[in-house]
């Protein structure tokens, strides 16, 4: 295990996470979460849905970030700076995949805010071409799991560790928020988290498995030209992948050579209940947490 | 840092950015009233932005927007998730993001004021967020408060004791407050205000002007501290 994982997972990482409850504040107000028992169910559900998606996105981002680090080392420390830098395209695509898995605009906004704050902080802690290119590719802030995966790469962690950190974040923020909001016994809540530990590991492994499918796909972002990833000849890519999708989003033009099948390998187990909680939270008259 | 300013993740360099002034203090002492007063007094001569840290609502930001003391778009609210002091001291990311958003949208600015959520006597601003800070007490907590000290009272660049108009009603002795504050503050300034009676908080505004002036023209703050 890379020790930097501990820093990444620490709630004291100064990246704005303390102000988000991941739907817990609204669940408390709605009466869905009232004590340790239903908090346990809330966290288990969150981990199995949003947690798994976040873990897979973080693992994918870590894979992209590690490739960015390697490439820049080969091309003399310059990760590319121009708007048309092809290194930005997979970041945008991955971020769009996160968007597609986040139905609620309120959740998207919260995820982007947290991602932006994390990248702002991580760029100073772990300066890296991965974070530079992500920041330029998605200037308003990438989704938090994408930012977390890129940060993990910058810190020297591997995709499995990035997935574990994302799974951990998906339950610890809401758990802490519930302690504050309901005055729960903090030891009892930590007991719940300890009980979830095997599931965290399983979630990270499931994310890794999905990622294997992703990286094994002939349309995966880095497979065509190992020297300069993502600049490959589109025709080449078509020849090698039977299932070529085309991006219609103008921001993603140029990414059409990436196979949709490879991105579809990333889990999309989102939770409608979390989307609904995020939307009603945004409309609440009073709230302590941003989300 | 500093090589690329084309995105919203990075802090500009020290030179040429607005002075960041933190205003902290206990709940209800008059922080928002002071921000409004400073906007009234300094608005005509300075380019301003304001960030509020509300605890539970967007009350303070709404109050300032309604007060018409500043273009409503130049007031941003940050939420702090039960921990107002965390957002100004231990994890300043959201506040920095708000400050830089204002500078990016309306810059260059001369002064960005960050009002913390009402908190206890130990809450102070990180130097990573505020270049200079004011701690606001009021007389209604009793004249013992300055004697109790705490980092806010002892280390703030300026201590403001507000609501002097209430002193006779609560039996607070201003000379005691002044003497005790002087004793724990090592010569740093203390000003007494009644923003109820002086809606421009002119003494404080004058002090802030001086600080902003040093920041932009002389490149240092109080006591020879050098601008990074
Ligand atoms: N009598 C008197 N009342 C004042 C004075 N200054 C402010 N107030 C009143 O005190 C109350 C609290 O003032 P705010 O400016 O909202 O205090 P605050 O420190 O921003 O409060 P929080 O942000 O909630 O911690 C308001 O009702 C103000 O009108 C003053 O000089 N004298
Ligand atoms: Mg206030």
Automatic annotation (TrEMBL), chain A:
InterPro entries: UreF, UreF_sf. It is found in: Cytoplasm. Residues 216-247 are annotated as: Disordered. Coiled coil: none annotated. Keywords: Chaperone, Cytoplasm, Nickel insertion. It comes from the Bacteria. Required for maturation of urease via the functional incorporation of the urease nickel metallocenter. Belongs to the UreF family. UreD, UreF and UreG form a complex that acts as a GTP-hydrolysis-dependent molecular chaperone, activating the urease apoprotein by helping to assemble the nickel containing metallocenter of UreC. The UreE protein probably delivers the nickel. This is Urease accessory protein UreF. It comes from Microtetraspora glauca.
TrEMBL record, chain B:
The keyword Ligase does not apply. Keywords: Chaperone, Cytoplasm, GTP-binding, Nickel insertion, Nucleotide-binding. It is found in: Cytoplasm. Its main location: cytoplasm. SUPFAM superfamilies: P-loop containing nucleoside triphosphate hydrolases (SSF52540). Coiled coil: none annotated. GTP binds at residues 25-32. Signal peptide: none annotated. Gene3D superfamilies: P-loop containing nucleotide triphosphate hydrolases (3.40.50.300). InterPro entries: CobW/HypB/UreG_nucleotide-bd, P-loop_NTPase, UreG. Residues 21-191 form the CobW/HypB/UreG nucleotide-binding domain. Pfam families: cobW (PF02492). Homodimer. UreD, UreF and UreG form a complex that acts as a GTP-hydrolysis-dependent molecular chaperone, activating the urease apoprotein by helping to assemble the nickel containing metallocenter of UreC. The UreE protein probably delivers the nickel. Belongs to the SIMIBI class G3E GTPase family. UreG subfamily. This is Urease accessory protein UreG.
